[in-house]
Amino acid sequence: MEAQSKKFSGKVAFVTGGGSGIGRATALAFAQAGASVAVIDIAKSALDETVAAIEAAGGKALGIKCDVTKSDEVQAALNKTVETFGGLDAAFNNAGIEQPVGLLADVPEDLWHRVIGVNLTSVFLCMKYQLEIMLKNGKGAIVNTSSGAGVTAIQGQAVYCASKFGVTSMSKAAAIEYAGQNIRINALCPGIIDTPMIGRFTHNTDEGRERMIAQEPVGRMGRPEEIAGAVLWLCSDDTAFMTGHALVMDGGQTAGM
Ligand code: NAD
After folding, report:
1. Which of 14, 92, 160, 165 does the annotation list as catalytic?
2. pLDDT above 80 for 55
3. What is the pLDDT of residues 98-155, one digit of tens each?
4. Is a pLDDT exceeding 70 seen at residue 93?
5. Which of 14, 34, 106, 173 could bridge 6 with an S-S bond, Cβ 3.0-4.6 Å?
6. Is residue 1 pLDDT above 50, yes or no?
7. Which of 15, 20, 48 for a ligand 1 pocket mutation test, highest count of atoms within 8 Å of Cβ?
8. How many angstroms does the Cα of residue 245 sit away from the middle of ligand 1?
9. Which residues, including other chains, have CB under 8 Å from residue 189's CB and lie 6 or more apart?
10. Which run of H or E residues covers position 61?
11. What average pLDDT does the structure give for the chain?
12. Which residues face 183 on adjacent strands?
């Protein structure tokens, strides 16, 4: 592998939702760039597959089954990461779930709590305990997965929007709080990315996929690897002067909104 692609040699990355989609692509990209990667997911078999793929490519990974809505599990996962790899340089807080399309008054209360728990409370918990470690180390970079739905309102997605606007604004507020301590925090706002989550909306039918693609001015869905590239960039020294930013990467989907 070329030296240029080993930008994260000797670094430690922590990726939640690493068992699928954007998280898996990002865990693989970090490993390919030389990082030791803690792959966090609630789905054990999925995270095992990501770890196996990283190891098969000659990378270093540690799989940790963890429900990111649970404080004790998040703390244990971070402790295990530091114990195993000796630090924490980059964190990608990305685990999330979708809201089935529906009007707010029809949303069951338990769905509200679930979406807010997985998409927003988890980011709070992850950042809270990652910051403790990064403050001790005197450096760090955090990227939180928001969404186009974290910068603009989408009909039928009120709960998901609430969770993702929360991620965007919490990332910005925290960025200001820790900018002086050499810790950068940015949010990433993907458009429609071709992952199992989108497959659940399209039922993987041609008609369903066409409906999604019609919302994308570039005429295609994004690829998880494209989002992974942006995450690595945001965690690299190339963006040392960037913090508190919400980077929209969405094929133009929200540009006219
Ligand atoms: P995905 O469903 O393919 O992957 C999500 C992963 O998160 C899964 O492996 C799942 O097991 C894990 N997860 C769910 N709940 C968890 C929990 N409580 N604890 C730990 N892990 C948990 O989805 P994806 O498309 O890769 O989405 C990743 C992130 O990107 C999500 O936050 C999502 O909201 C966001 N996003 C996705 C899109 C898109 O079009 N795919 C667009 C914008 C934002």
Report:
1. 160
2. yes
3. 999 999 999 999 999 999 999 999 999 999 999 999 999 999 999 999 999 999 999 9
4. yes
5. 34
6. no
7. 20
8. 21
9. 146, 147, 148, 150, 151, 164, 168, 246, 247, 248, 249, 250, 254
10. strand 60-65
11. 97
12. 140
Q: 43 CB under 6 A from ligand 1?
A: yes
The number of beta carbons lying within 10 Å of the beta carbon of residue 103 is 9
Scanning the chain, the segments in alpha helix (DSSP H) are: 21-32, 44-56, 71-85, 109-116, 122-137, 158-178, 196-202, 206-213, 224-235
Contact indicator for 145, 170 with CB cutoff of 8 Å: no
- The length of the chain in residues reads 257
Name the token pair of 181: 């301590």
By the 8 A CB rule, do 77 and 128 touch?
Answer: no
The pTM for the full model equals 0.98
- Specify whether the CB–CB gap between 21 and 224 falls below 8 A: yes
